[in-house]
Each structure stands twice: as C-alpha cells, then as structure tokens.
C-alpha cells in the first residue's frame, strides 16, 4: 500500500512541472508602433496669427493633443516634443523622436497666405535642396529662428542627418500621400497636394517624417474652425486614418502588416 500512496503526489508534481507556463507580457502584447508628434513653434515663437487673434502655437498644440488621443485609441504609442507652451529648438525635435525610438515623426503646423481666401491642407516631406519657389517660401517661414545647426561638428552632423533622412524619403512620401488623402476625405479640406521642402524640423529624423500644414490660419473661416473642438477631432481622425493606411500598405514586418485600417 505504501508505494501506491507515494506514487500519487509524484505524478501530480510531474504533471505540474510539464504544464505550459503563462506567457510573459511580451508574448501577450507585442510592442506597439510609436508615433512622435511635434506641435510647431511654442514659447516666444508664436508662429502665424489669425485675424481674430488665434496664434499658431496654441492651435497646433490643441491639434496635437486631440491627435494624441486619436492615435492612442487606434492602438499606437505616442510621444510629443512639447506638451505645453514651451519652445523646443528645431534641431532638437527630430533628435527627441530618434531617442524615443519612434517609427514615424509628424510635425503639425498651420499655413498662412496674403490671400485670405487660401484654404486647405498641405502635407510636406523633406527636400534635400531648395524645392520649388512656393514650397521654399513656406519652409523659410517655418525655419525662421532655427539658425545653423549647433555644435562644432555641424557640417559633418548635417551630412549624416541628410543621409539618415534620405534613406526614408520614399516612405516619407508615401506617408504624406496617405495623410493628405485622408485629410481630403475625412477632414473635408480642399486638397492642395503633397510637396517637398527643406524643413529643418524634418532633418535628421531616422524614420519617415512629414510636416502637416493643417489649415490656413490666415483664412477667417478656417481660423474659426480651428477653435471648434468637433473640427479638431475630425482633423485628428483624418491624420490617424492616414497613419493607419500607411502602415497597412507598408512593406516590412508582420507586426506592421497586421494593423487594420478600420476604426
């Protein structure tokens, strides 16, 4: 009788040792894609000003806050270069995204024109030369105050930055197209097209990177929309859908291909 009594706990221990282990966090939840959001301007750099007094730095921060929520609801991790009215040097913004290991970099701005009727959105990706005259003038406004790249090794660093972003120009263009299409479709904004320009804020981004001129703050009607929470949410959803469609069509890992474009 004794051997049979001892056998039961032995079998129980053996079965316990061979049972499947509970998967760790990495097995249960694969690492999520990370989006770096940059609200243009900030602090003493107010950006453009609407006829009703709206400042670009304030409006783009509101857009980024809404976009942050929209992207997180869609399953992305998000980091922001500024969360309040603080100026971050342009040369530091892409560096912050690189250090955070972001998969995409999106800089949010507002357009301005002498013609008050100008309206709609424009999505830019980096040009390593001057680009066309109109694009160069937009970049010149947004680059104001950037100065030359800081540091004694600025020439070498600039070459390395250009090389880093050059590797992603094709992906950056695809991202720009995806976002622009969604802004047209969901945002109800007249198309102004995808363009290239030498934006300082996009240089050095070791990932696909775009700059979104979300609307014309110089247009009184669009300035009014930028104060409307419903419009900001609509804008955020449009950009989020563009990001999702970009990843859904991206060649790369299964993790990227697995992302659904449905909301």
Compact overview of the structure:
It contains 10 helices and 6 strands, in the order ααβαβαββαααββααα. The protein has helices at residues 2-18, 25-28, 56-73, 90-99, 133-142, 154-166, 169-185, 220-225, 229-248, 254-257, and strands at residues 34-39, 77-80, 104-111, 121-126, 191-197, 209-216. Strand 1, helix 3 and strand 2 (77-80) form a beta-alpha-beta unit.
Mean pLDDT: 82
CATH class descriptor name: Alpha Beta
**Architecture, CATH level 2?**
3-Layer(aba) Sandwich
Strands across the major sheet, in which order? 2-1-3-6-4-5
Question: What does this entry look like structurally?
Answer:
The chain is α/β, with parallel strands linked by helices and 263 residues long. It has a single domain, classed as 3-Layer(aba) Sandwich (Aminopeptidase), CATH 3.40.630. The protein is built from ten helices and six strands; from the N terminus they run ααβαβαββαααββααα. The protein has helices spanning 2-18, 25-28, 56-73, 90-99, 133-142, 154-166, 169-185, 220-225, 229-248, 254-257, and strands at residues 34-39, 77-80, 104-111, 121-126, 191-197, 209-216. A six-stranded mixed β-sheet has the order 2-1-3-6-4-5, sandwiched between helices. Helix 3 (56-73) crosses helix 9 (229-248). The model is unreliable at 1-29 and 252-263 (pLDDT under 50).
């Amino acid at each position: 009788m004794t051997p049979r009594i001892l056998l039961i706990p032995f079998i129980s221990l053996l079965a316990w040792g061979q049972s499947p282990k509970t998967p760790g966090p990495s097995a249960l939840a694969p690492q999520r894609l990370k989006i770096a959001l940059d609200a243009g301007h900030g602090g003493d750099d107010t950006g453009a000003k609407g006829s009703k007094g709206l400042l670009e730095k304030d409006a783009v921060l509101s857009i980024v806050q809404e976009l942050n929520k929209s992207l997180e609801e869609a399953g992305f991790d998000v980091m922001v270069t500024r969360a309040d009215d603080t100026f971050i040097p342009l040369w530091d913004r892409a560096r912050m995204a690189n250090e955070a290991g972001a998969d995409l970099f999106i800089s949010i701005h507002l357009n301005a024109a002498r013609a008050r009727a100008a309206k709609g959105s424009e999505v830019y990706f980096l040009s390593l030369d001057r680009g066309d005259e109109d694009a160069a003038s937009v970049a010149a406004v947004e680059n104001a105050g950037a100065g030359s790249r800081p540091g004694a090794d600025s020439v070498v660093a600039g070459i390395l930055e250009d090389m880093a972003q050059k590797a992603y120009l094709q992906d950056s263009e695809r991202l720009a197209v995806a976002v622009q299409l969604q802004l047209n479709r969901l945002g109800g904004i007249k198309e102004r097209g995808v363009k290239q320009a030498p934006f300082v804020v996009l240089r050095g981004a070791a990932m696909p990177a775009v700059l979104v001129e979300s609307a014309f703050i110089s247009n009184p009607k669009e300035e009014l929309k930028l104060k409307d929470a419903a419009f900001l949410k609509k804008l955020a959803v449009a950009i989020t859908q563009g990001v999702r469609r970009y990843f859904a069509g991206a060649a790369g890992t299964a993790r990227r291909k697995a992302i659904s474009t449905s909301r």
